[in-house]
Design a protein that fits this description.
This protein is of the alpha+beta class and about 325 residues long. The chain has eleven helices and 14 strands.
């Protein structure tokens, strides 16, 4: 009898300890606690020396709340999302460039989409397309150098500190969408997928990895060209977040975190960071994720790399400053 009581007491103590430990871990992983317990990493700061100054058309003002020395102490930070166009081991340009300003205290994310054709000044090159930064860095020093070059180019353009980044390629993106069991998207208008030779109708539908990839790549059939493609990329990102929060995926979330890290080529987010960001997403709604594009106009200039005129996107300083003052 005494032995049974002793065993019951031990089991009860273990159960209470288990619950307490679980609660403590859950508490520590809450975004407002997790990202404020240690200094935010500072990957890059704007570099305004003579050889890497930002385009004159971009105002010299930081994004709201960016920087690890902010009085917010980690309640707001900047995360760069890079999608590269490489398959296998070939050198690659950045096909997707999005800067996410994450405000933990407000449970909001502001996505800033940067056209890959944006004209910026790169060190030892001159004014060229921002998506050339990655391939030039990669040629000089491999994958990590390509990442660093892209981080610096965006930091200079937006004049902000960047704290985190994630980078994936076509294969990783397609595989992760299939891992989720496909992705549900709501298209505001039909989209003709040029290379798939089909048209996705407007409304709700479920896409596999291949069609999801072709959707975020499509621009030829879109009336707004690359601007339309950026909107679809932002739509896909929102859809992925929504899918991760479905009950069927929450149950296998630890495994999905590991799978995501396998499909990413590179990131400085830890497992705990990813889980904490997921908890943040649980408290967000459709209005919590705002999306803007770097405003500007198209133009043609001689490119120092290919030695011929290329199409560029020229940022509009005044319009960008107005958007930043309202949304960032």
């Amino acid at each position: 009898m005494r032995r049974s009581r002793k065993i019951l007491l031990i089991l009860s103590s273990v159960f209470i300890l288990f619950i307490a430990t679980g609660y403590l871990i859950y508490y520590k992983l809450q975004p407002i606690h997790h990202f404020s317990t240690a200094p935010l990493p500072i990957l890059v700061k704007p570099n305004h020396d003579a050889d890497s100054e930002p385009s004159p058309s971009v105002p010299d003002s930081s994004l709201s709340g960016s920087g690890a020395t902010s009085t917010l102490k980690g309640s707001a930070f900047n995360l760069l999302i890079l999608g590269i166009d490489a398959r296998d081991t070939e050198n690659s340009r950045t096909d997707v460039i999005m800067l996410a300003h994450v405000d933990i205290a407000q449970s909001t994310v502001h996505l800033i989409s940067i056209p890959r054709d944006t004209r910026v000044k790169l060190p030892q090159v001159g004014y060229t397309k921002i998506n050339h930064a990655h391939v030039l860095g990669e040629i000089q020093g491999g994958n990590q150098a390509g990442t660093q070059a892209s981080l610096q180019a965006v930091s200079n353009l937006c004049n902000c500190t960047i704290n985190y980044y994630v980078k994936t390629n076509f294969v990783g993106f397609e595989h992760f969408i299939n891992t989720l069991g496909g992705i549900n998207v709501t298209l505001p208008a039909p989209v003709k997928l040029t290379y798939a030779h089909i048209t996705l109708p407007a409304g709700d539908q479920k896409l596999n990895g291949d069609l999801a990839l072709k959707l975020v790549q499509e621009r030829h059939s879109l009336g707004e060209g690359d601007n339309g493609r950026q909107e679809n990329q932002a739509l896909m990102l929102k859809s992925i977040v929504h899918s991760l929060l479905q009950p069927s995926n929450i149950a296998r979330f630890p495994w999905l975190v590991q799978q995501a890290k396998q499909d990413l080529l590179d990131t400085n987010l830890t497992d705990a960071d990813i889980i904490s960001l997921s908890l943040l997403a649980k408290n967000m709604n459709a209005q919590s994720i705002q999306y803007v594009q770097i405003p500007g106009h198209s133009g043609k200039f001689m490119d120092p790399l290919v030695h011929k005129e290329l199409y560029y996107w020229i940022p509009n300083a005044a319009a960008w400053a107005e958007i930043r003052s309202k949304d960032l």
